[in-house]
Design goal:
heterodimer, A: four-stranded antiparallel β-sheet, 28% strand, B: 335 residues
């Protein structure tokens, strides 16, 4: 069930802190609708914190996040959960949970004591399973799936939320190349169907290949935003990772490829 | 195809049948068996108004109230255990092991020593609430609230301190000691229905609360962040669970004293039969809890007959080996 409503998300002068230490300061970003946005940067630069902030898991010290023209702090949790689905980096499921069980949880924001399970909910679950290519595995326990399948099952849960926005924290962490591509291609399919995806990605090459838009963070500040081909330069990579490199371009699609990387002295 | 099921959170019909048969058998045993000379057939005819006067007296004033109390205690402890385990994501989070029952019992002992015995049920619920808060707070302070064994250790320490405090009070206060001697090890012998009436609304309220909070609690099994992403309030869910558990365990303790291991064994069996989702495990635990307590209480009358073995001793004899097995194997369904 593709949702084509415009769902641009924007952060204004955001400051996020854990206790005393400020992780992000004066961060302003906009998330273009119906595109894949990748948040990149070195370890500890605040990528996951920014994603958590955008999903309101982390309350800002300053600034605000605007969704459909409204500050997300003003939305009740259930309303936000119908607009925005989040998949954290570390997820765990109880033993014995089946794929369909997990995906049904995605309907939580749409059901309740007074609003019981409906054909619409069932349709959303079936759709999510199909989109994620898991229809045949619906009754399988999660623990029996491969890493890529399991990750797709979690994404299917987020899909069943039927939100225009999807926030994914390192959706391909700990997956091998084949499973990474499986997940990234699913993400591409989703934006083609009208979703807006924001993801934290460690692997710069994959980020370049699969993202339409990039937000580069370093030490809690945004140092570049834009299309990968426009912003990824040897200078930016040096600035982000203290690495010297040469950039080539993939002859098939022009995606930047990093070669000859070594520590900048 | 299985996907066509509405939400597949209803237990299967075989499981329902199994629970029903078990409950019927255990009620029959509880009414029919006992230390007295009244046999099963005589007891059942006495229930219908037949039999001699002595049989009617035994059945109507001793065994029937006992059966009803066992059912209530079973419901309360099994429900409280299942909820606490789901909220703490810890298969060992048992009200008895965590010191919740001990908190409740100590509060009652203090109240009786102070001459406030008539506040029994309220004090018991308050004590259970305090016990819950103390042990969850202690586990959280240590920063390892996710470690199942650590939480149980914190609970065991708390339970020992509380039991020692109760024992000390009883040592110095003969009147209180006489009043609660049997009660402090857990037992439901010699209770009248009038004594348990105050616990009835607490159990009812706790069960209604459990039914309401089961759905959001199920989402919490996916982790705090995912639950919040689904629009739930983890803090609110945990607070509601603590409230329900305090009502249920407090009421059970007021009726029967601190009876351990029911909240461990029964939810464990329920998860094994119905899977980890609390929406499925809770009804099964509630169906099995009364049977377990009824059978344990029937055993309590028979093992050392005509003397009465405390119910808490019987449940511990059954439950402690299960606990050891669970800890040793660690292949219990994790939460």
């Amino acid at each position: 069930m593709p949702n084509s409503t415009s769902a641009a998300l924007a952060a204004h002068a955001l400051r996020l802190a854990y206790r005393q230490s400020v992780v992000l300061d004066a961060v302003s970003v906009t998330i273009p609708a119906h595109q894949v946005t990748a948040i990149i940067g070195p370890n500890g630069c605040g990528k996951s914190t920014l994603l958590a902030g955008l999903a309101r898991l982390h309350a800002p010290e300053q600034g605000q996040i605007i969704l459909n023209g409204r500050a997300i702090q003003r939305l009740v949790p259930r309303e936000l959960a119908r607009q925005l689905a989040l998949l954290p980096q570390h997820v765990l499921a109880p033993d014995g949970l089946s794929v369909a069980d997990l995906v049904r949880f995605g309907r939580h924001p749409h059901t309740g004591l007074l609003r019981q399970w409906s054909p619409e909910d069932q349709a959303a679950v079936t759709d999510a399973l199909h989109t994620a290519g898991l229809a045949d595995l619906a009754e399988r326990p999660l623990t029996t799936l491969s890493g890529g399948q399991r990750q797709r099952a979690w994404i299917a849960m987020a899909l069943a939320q039927s939100t225009p926005l999807l926030l994914l924290d390192e959706p391909t962490a700990a997956l091998d190349l084949g499973h990474q591509i499986e997940v990234f291609e699913l993400i591409r399919t989703l934006t083609r169907a009208g979703k807006t995806v924001v993801m934290v990605v460690h692997d710069l090459v994959s980020a370049c290949r699969y993202a339409d838009h990039m937000i580069a963070l370093r030490a809690g500040s945004v140092i570049a935003t834009g299309a990968p081909r426009a912003i990824i330069t040897p200078a930016l990579i040096r600035q982000l990772y203290d690495v010297q490199c040469t950039l080539l371009h993939d002859p098939t699609d022009g995606t930047p490829i990093i070669v000859g990387a070594q520590r900048a002295l | 195809m299985a996907l066509e099921r509405p939400q597949s959170i209803k237990p299967s019909s075989q499981l329902t049948l199994l629970c029903a048969v078990l409950l019927l058998l255990s009620v029959a045993a509880s009414i029919g068996l006992g230390a007295g000379a009244v046999g099963p057939l005589e007891a059942w005819s006495a229930l219908g108004g037949g039999g001699d006067a002595q049989a009617r007296l035994v059945v109507l004033t001793l065994r029937l109230p006992r059966t009803l109390i066992a059912v209530l205690v079973g419901l309360a402890l099994a429900g409280g255990g299942a909820m606490l385990q789901a909220a703490a994501r810890n298969p060992l989070a048992e009200p008895g092991l965590l010191g919740v029952s001990a908190g409740s019992a100590t509060a009652v002992v203090i109240a009786i020593a102070l001459g406030l015995g008539h506040l029994h049920i309220i004090v018991a619920i308050g004590g259970a609430l305090l016990g819950c808060a103390l042990v969850l707070g202690a586990a959280r302070l240590s920063g390892r609230g996710d470690d199942p064994v650590r939480l149980v250790l914190a609970g065991a320490a708390l339970a020992s301190i509380l039991a020692a405090s109760s024992a000390t009070i009883l040592l110095f206060d003969q009147r209180t000691a006489d009043e609660v001697r049997f009660w402090t090890i857990g037992g439901i012998a010699g209770r009248s229905l009038a004594q348990v009436m105050p616990a009835l609304p607490a159990v009812g309220l706790g069960l209604i609360g459990a039914a309401v909070v089961a759905r959001p609690l199920a989402a919490l099994a996916l982790g705090e962040q995912v639950a919040r992403g689904l629009g739930q309030h983890p803090q609110l869910i945990r607070a509601s669970v603590v409230g329900c558990v305090a009502l249920l365990v407090g009421a059970a303790t007021a009726m029967a004293g601190p009876v351990g291991f029911v909240g461990l064994v029964v939810p464990l069996a329920a998860r094994w039969l119905a899977g980890p989702d609390i929406r499925r495990a809770l009804p099964v635990a509630l169906a099995l809890g009364p049977s377990f307590v009824l059978l344990a209480d029937t055993l309590a009358r028979l093992v050392a007959s005509p003397a009465e073995t405390p119910l808490g001793v019987v449940t511990a004899l059954i439950g402690a080996p299960v606990l050891v097995l669970v800890v040793r194997r660690q292949r219990l369904p994790s939460l």
